[in-house]
Amino acid sequence: MGQETSDLGAIFRSARHALRLKQVDVARAVGYSPSAISRIEGNRMRVDLDTRLRLAQVLRIPPERVSGFPVPAGPVIDTVVNVPMPNEEDAMRRRTLLGALAAGASAVVGTGTAAASPAAAVDLNDVLFRLPSADPAPLQALAAKTASARQAFTAARYNDLGNSLPGLLAAAEATRESAAGRARQQANAVLARAYVLASELAAKQHSDAAWVAADRALAAARASGMPIPVGEAARVLAITMRRSGNCSSAVRFLATEAAALDPAQERTGAVRTTLLLTAAYSAAAGGDRATALTLLDEADETVERRPQAPGGLFTVDATKTQAAVYRIGVHNTLGTPDEGVEIARSLNIGLMPTAERRARAWTDTARMWHTLGNSQQAFAALSHVEQEAAQEVRRPALRALTSSLLYSPARVQGLREFAVRTGAVPA
Predict the structure, then answer these.
(1) Which residues have CB under 8 Å from 125's CB, separation 6+?
(2) Residue 82 to residue 16: CA distance in whole angstroms
(3) Which among 309, 334, 313, 119 has a CA at the least distance from the CA of 220?
């Protein structure tokens, strides 16, 4: 990264001040929380290229200042003039910009469930700290309700999941508190899965609620005494650690949890593989290539020995295809996307079991082609994301990737319509 990008936080902060915007205004426009914007401006949170370009678009910063390489300016990206403005001009400029941001938000949220972004359904911060009152439920009924919520997540119906979470979490908490002995352990396991879902949804929203949900998930999982819930909760907690910039801590935490699981056993082995894959990506995010590739190789060996995955509420996708997708993501993160090309070409994403997983695989493929400068292939992959999961493609990270493609030198037929349809740019 060049000198222009050595202090990203100062660049973003200066541009925001020049536009007289509050952190909450920027947060709303890019789908982050205000505290995340604060950490970005203080250089306490790592942000990938897609996010930097999205912030640059919102704050009207020349994209080359935050990307480290020249990016042609589009109709929305202009240079910020860091000079005092008269009050009337200042107010008019701010109203104009906020109007444009509101228009973009309207394009994202829309008026129906299919058009809404994951952030539109529910504010998870409110949910986690103000659960509704609920009565205890029979364990079988609670497990069925949790399984239904998990199905909403794997089908990428994030609004449905968000709307079901308050009642689910409240019922699970009440059930756990009223239970004793073995029933309490089982209730803790169900509660852990519910909080894992909450953390996964919050991560897709770029919400700080992911931390709270993951911490509660791990506490409930440990209270259950069951290794598989513990492993799943550890995975989502490590993801929140990585997203906040604590990559090495995430790797150490995951390695410790993985070491406690027996790779020879079918059920614990599958969870161990997912922990190794997540640790590999976390190491890559921290720039540790050797550790990332070593962890990937170890995960591959585990997959070869144990192709099955545990079932029930804690079904884990630990297959050769999933490991290959992680390898593409690791190479993208390490800055060596060319090493993922052959993997992507031999990959059968259709073999992946859920819409959410298939959409994530196509997302990693899109990022790979975009970084390699192949806009046509990147857009084709993004189109697959939309086909698999309409709400997935409207997430902040995907909108940023679409926006970055739109303002790249290549002109791709259908891309602008796609960008408008998915909320990456205002209509």
Answers:
(1) 33, 207, 208, 209, 212
(2) 10
(3) 313
